[in-house]
Amino acid sequence: MSQTAAARRLGLDSAWQSALRNPWVLLLAAVLVLQLAVALLMGGGRSMAPAAVDVPLLNLEMDAVSAIEISTADGDSVRLERSSDGWVLPVLDGFPASGSRVDSMLEDLAGLKRPLPVATSAEAQRRFRVAEDAFERRLVLRGEGGETTLMVGDSPGFRRLFARIAGEDAVYDLRLALFDLGATADDWIDRGRLQFDRGEISRISADDWTLVRGEEGWSLEGTDAPVDSAVADELASAVATVSYTSVLGPDSDTDDDLDDPARVITIEHAGGERRYRLAPIADSEDYVLKRDDEPYVYRLSAFDAETLVDTDRARLLGETTDAEVEVDAPEVGAPPAAEGAEPQQSTATATPPGVDDPASDTTVADPPAEPVGGDAANADD
């Protein structure tokens, strides 16, 4: 079919028919066809659609991760290592880390997809705090598949963080929370190391008393006096659910004296026996606790240590060592006495025996009158 006939079939007027026969138009059309052919050959038949973004952000198998390092630009850092018994903290002599928290973090990282970047420039990396020398967290994951480093920066919203893979320019907005990426050992310690079932306790001993749980409840060895069950239950709960704020490392400079503890508690329970030593920390209200069969030293707040340290025989028996009535307690509604003032003396005069008190509401009958004159004589008769 000739060009003229093709132009007629397309409904083109004579001017377009003449243009299609122009040698330059024919040359440009040939060049376009050649470019399309080259593009197809170089693309290997791949789709011309935009690159997919629904792919994993981190090219690392999370189950194969054996070590995690988290650090801040200020110098705080923590290392987590996978052992045969779970995740541990080498800086604390292998103290167990919270396995559920580590697994949750790895699950969140594995679920991250590579979105479209929000920025790529070096200036934007510093502004979003994901640069090599300016960041909120540096997260290094090591495993059999290699090593991946994620630079984590500021937060644009709730549970969102800017982040960048080290070695790449793209900055992403990811679904992460900075709270889940703690950079100290205290952020990752296992908080339930000293906890067990309170119902397993059969005996608690300390100082001069031993509390025993029997079929009829609690009792104290060496006495038939009834035990205050509320106090005994409170002690059992405190013993079975010891909470601690931190675990002290071997290089801790905490000033305490566990060789001369303030309280030694021995607990017998279904799982065996454990012995706690508690000592106050100098210049602090906190305490340290050491379990005899472990190398770790736990730091307890004054609130968490109170029941363990202060419970004694008198409290267990429901007795009190404090005076029940305060001396010279002020009357209700009376103004407080000025500091240093002498106690006020009562202005009322004591009433001698046999004399009526004029302030009394009680009416006393008058004594009978003596007879006068002749009446007196008659009385003598």
What does the average pLDDT come to?
A: 82
As laid out across the biggest beta sheet, the strand order is: 4-3-2-1-7-8-9-10
Which residues form runs of ≥5 with pLDDT under 50?
Answer: 45-52, 322-329, 337-381
* Termini gap: 180 Å
What does the overall shape look like? elongated
Strand content: 15-25%
Count of discrete alpha- or pi-helical segments spanning 4 or more residues: 9
Helicity range of the residues? 10-25%
The biggest beta sheet is recorded as: 8 strands, antiparallel
Q: Please count the beta strands (DSSP E, at least 2 residues each).
A: 18
Backbone CA Rg: 44 Å
Order of helical and strand elements: HHHEEEEHHEEEEEEEEEHEEEEEHHH
Alpha-beta content class: alpha+beta
Topology overview:
Layout: H1 3-9, H2 14-20, H3 23-42, E1 65-71, E2 77-83, E3 86-89, E4 95-96, H4 99-110, H5 122-127, E5 130-131, E6 134-135, E7 137-143, E8 146-152, E9 161-165, E10 172-174, E11 201-206, E12 209-214, E13 217-220, H6 229-240, E14 246-248, E15 263-269, E16 272-280, E17 287-291, E18 297-300, H7 302-310, H8 313-316, H9 374-380
Antiparallel strand pairs: 1-2, 1-7, 2-3, 3-4, 5-6, 7-8, 8-9, 9-10, 11-12, 11-15, 12-13, 14-18, 15-16, 16-17, 17-18
